[in-house]
Write a structure and sequence with these properties.
CATH topology: MetI-like fold
Radius of gyration: 23 Å
Number of helices: 12
Helix content: over 70%
CATH superfamily: MetI-like
Order of helices and strands: HHHHHHHHHHHH
Number of strands: 0
Strand content: under 5%
CATH class: Mainly Alpha
Shape: globular
Largest sheet: none
Distance between the termini: 40 Å
Structural class: mainly alpha
Length: about 280
């Protein structure tokens, strides 16, 4: 009995130690970026002499980085709201309704996830150029929706498997339409799953670079990843602005992820349940 207890204790200790090591490995780079953004460029990589300053942030904001933050927030928020509405309705149709070609259409949507984004940049650029949609918010929102909807639909379809069909049937028997069933009955129950998919879509759009660099060429329309890239020179890198920009880019995702973490875990866990 004592030997078994000793083995259990050793296993738990090893698990805690490994978890702490992995957590430290993952958290340290983010912590270092925030600390480095408050150092002078001369002492940023020094292990002994540290000079603290906020000039990196002031210079970055004076250069118009605040406008780039607004561009990213506007594009990502708009795209996430629209993609969530599309994904919720599509997921309900694929999981609850029976219609011809359902499985084929669902497979075609998931097929879009298998293509690397880089091979889609050129045809998308040519398409938008012919339509006169370069340097347009509409084109970027369309791209963000297109890249985030397939996985969102897949995740929500899995989540809906944990929602009893009897709720739909009861609401329909009471005279509710399919739209009312989705948004008045199913939506509140699906909220954790919707939070998980919306967070995924936001993070995906927030860090997107390839389509932005091809479609957005006007300075006043550039998003944060594009604005941050200009500080990487061919021969010299402005590390002060790079670290401050990286910190400002990371901060919104942390502020959003931490309060929504419990909803994300619940949504992803429920989405893996099959009935």
């Amino acid at each position: 009995m004592r030997m078994r207890d000793a083995k259990t204790w050793a296993t738990e200790l090893a698990t805690v130690t490994a978890t702490a090591a992995i957590l430290g490995f993952l958290v340290y780079p983010t912590f270092w970026v925030f600390v480095a953004s408050l150092k002078t460029p001369e002492t940023m990589f020094s292990a002994r002499n540290w000079d603290w300053t906020i000039s990196n942030y002031t210079r970055l904001m004076d250069a118009g980085f605040g406008h780039n933050i607004f561009n990213s927030l506007f594009l990502c928020t708009t795209a996430v709201v629209l993609s969530t509405v599309i994904s919720v309705n599509a997921a309900y149709a694929f999981s609850r309704l029976r219609f011809r070609g359902r499985d084929t259409l669902f497979g075609a949507i998931l097929l879009g996830q298998t293509f690397p984004w880089i091979i889609l940049v050129t045809p998308v650029f040519i398409l938008f150029a012919r339509m006169g949609l370069l340097n347009s918010w509409v084109s970027m929102i369309f791209v963000y929706i297109a890249v985030s909807v397939p996985f969102s639909i897949y995740l929500l379809v899995g989540y809906l498997r944990s929602v009893p069909r009897s709720l739909d049937e009861a609401a329909i028997m009471d005279g509710a339409s399919y739209v009312q069933v989705v948004w008045r009955v199913i939506f509140p129950i699906m909220f954790p799953g919707i939070v998980a998919t919306a967070t995924y879509a936001f993070l995906l759009c927030w860090s997107e670079y390839l389509f932005s660099v091809a479609i957005l060429t006007r300075e006043e329309m550039k998003t944060m990843p594009l604005a941050l890239y200009i500080y990487f020179g061919e021969n010299v890198t402005d590390w002060g602005n790079v670290m401050a920009g990286a910190a400002l880019t990371t901060l919104p995702t942390l502020l959003m992820f931490l309060p929504l973490q419990r909803y994300m875990v619940a949504g992803l866990a429920a989405g893996s349940v099959k009935q």
